[in-house]
Amino acid sequence: MRPLSLLFLVSFLACGDGGEDAGWRSSDLRLDGTGAADAFDAASVRICRSTGEDVFVVWEDDRTGVPAIWLQHSPDGGQSWREAPVRVNRGEAAATRPDVACIGQNVFVVWEDLRDGELDNKNIYFNRSGTAGESWSGSDRRLNPDPDGRAMSLMPQIVAKGWEIHVVWSDNRGGTFDIFSSSSDDGGANFTEPQRVNSNPPGSAFSAFPAVATDGDGLVVVVWEDARDGLNDIYVAISSDKGVSYSSDVRLDTGDSPGFANSFRPQVALDDGEIYVVWQDERSGGDRDIYFNYSGDSGMTWLESSLQVESNGPGSSDSASPAVALSAGVGHVVWQDRRAGGFDIFYRSFIEGHPRPLDVERNGGEARDAEFRLNLGDRAGANNSLEAVVVAQGENVAVLWEDHRFDGVTTGGTPQGFNEVYYNFSSQAGLTWEPVDLRLDSFCAGRKYVSDLGAVLHGDSVLATWVDGRRGFANIMFSRRPLGEEGEPPPACN
């Protein structure tokens, strides 16, 4: 058991009957420090929950004058946290844009690092801890072979399952950015030599913004946007041998000519051989749409033509920033949609790559649209709800977003940029949702900004992190809510 001096208890309210969830909720908790004099800015927060109770949060901040990577750890699902965050990177140069994965008390972190060379080119570094972040490898591991910093490597993404770890990034060693991958099958003790994932000639076209998923049993899926034929398309490559080798890449945004229109921001979900890839697409010539492709056989075959997620006509309303989760055979897709004026958050579900039939009986005998709005506590299109995050575990599904319904307006009529964290949830695998959305954070409405939202599920609770500006600086906040409960602003807000 970890010494109590390393932990401090967050306030909680016991209101359940124990079990995995324990039925408690936290007030908003600042994770990057507790002193009012901590005048530094944090960014790029990421959250990971292991298969047990361990929860890890990483971010970058400049408290030492140079951006560095920091980690907080909870051993009990967010009830208690370390007395102070732990620095991850061993180097002294600027370290930014971290990502995190975890297995039990093993935590793995990657980031962009400026320590090599004098050209301000970033490399990808990695470190690991087998003690829940208490101790780390004595030196960081550089994953890309560029000791002199002659090329730029950016946007690292990491996933871990079983003892497999896979890291992908964009690398311009060939002239223009390509997608590279390095993998470990022994918990990060050793990594494969980085290999280029995109199969067109090295440096021949811009390839960037990779996303990666694994099943922990040898299957690795990497997706990215790729301009080899003109404008950006979405490509995928599959490894069936733990990242040792990859298949020739395949274009997923089919249905129009290669390079005909821009397709951006691919996201991927993988479970039990099923793969969903979603992105925003400009093929209609009008406003952006959300498209997807699907494989039910571990990436061996895909839909002949990618499909629009929304049921309204192509280009009829601006849709962007899709996210996807896959659980119990149901694909859950969310996005922001301007069909009514301002952006709203919409949801649609799929089974085996097909739009999910409505279950009229479980919806009170009422039919509904193929996709539906989740920010139901506000008038459609009245304000902006942005950057939705979706998480699923079993039949529990939660969608969180940045919501501007209380954004103040200056005398000149310009919104001030204030927003809150809102969510909606389903305990029936997306068949039914709450009739009104719920506020997650606990602070005076319209007096702060939030960004960089992330979440995981823990039984019947949602655990969320975000960058928060309530103190005048950008800080890292955490909150845990049993599904169905809201944050309570302090009395001083009234």
The dominant shape is globular
In helices, the fraction of residues equals: under 10%
Can you summarize the main beta sheet?
5 strands, antiparallel
The number of helices is: 0
Structure overview:
- With 494 residues, this protein is an all-beta fold.
- It has a domain at 1-30 and 317-488.
- 0% of the residues lie in helices and 43% in strands.
- The radius of gyration is 22 Å and the shape is globular.
- It starts with 6 loop residues before the first strand and ends in a 12-residue tail after the last strand.
- Mean pLDDT is 90; it is low at 1-24.
Please give the structural blueprint.
Elements: E1 7-9, E2 29-30, E3 42-49, E4 55-61, E5 68-74, E6 80-82, E7 86-87, E8 95-103, E9 106-113, E10 123-129, E11 141-142, E12 153-161, E13 164-171, E14 178-184, E15 195-196, E16 207-214, E17 220-226, E18 233-239, E19 250-251, E20 263-271, E21 274-281, E22 289-295, E23 307-308, E24 319-327, E25 330-337, E26 344-351, E27 354-355, E28 372-373, E29 385-393, E30 396-403, E31 420-426, E32 438-439, E33 450-458, E34 461-468, E35 475-482
Antiparallel strand pairs: 1-6, 2-35, 3-4, 4-5, 5-7, 8-9, 9-10, 10-11, 12-13, 13-14, 14-15, 16-17, 17-18, 18-19, 20-21, 21-22, 22-23, 24-25, 25-26, 26-27, 26-28, 29-30, 30-31, 31-32, 33-34, 34-35
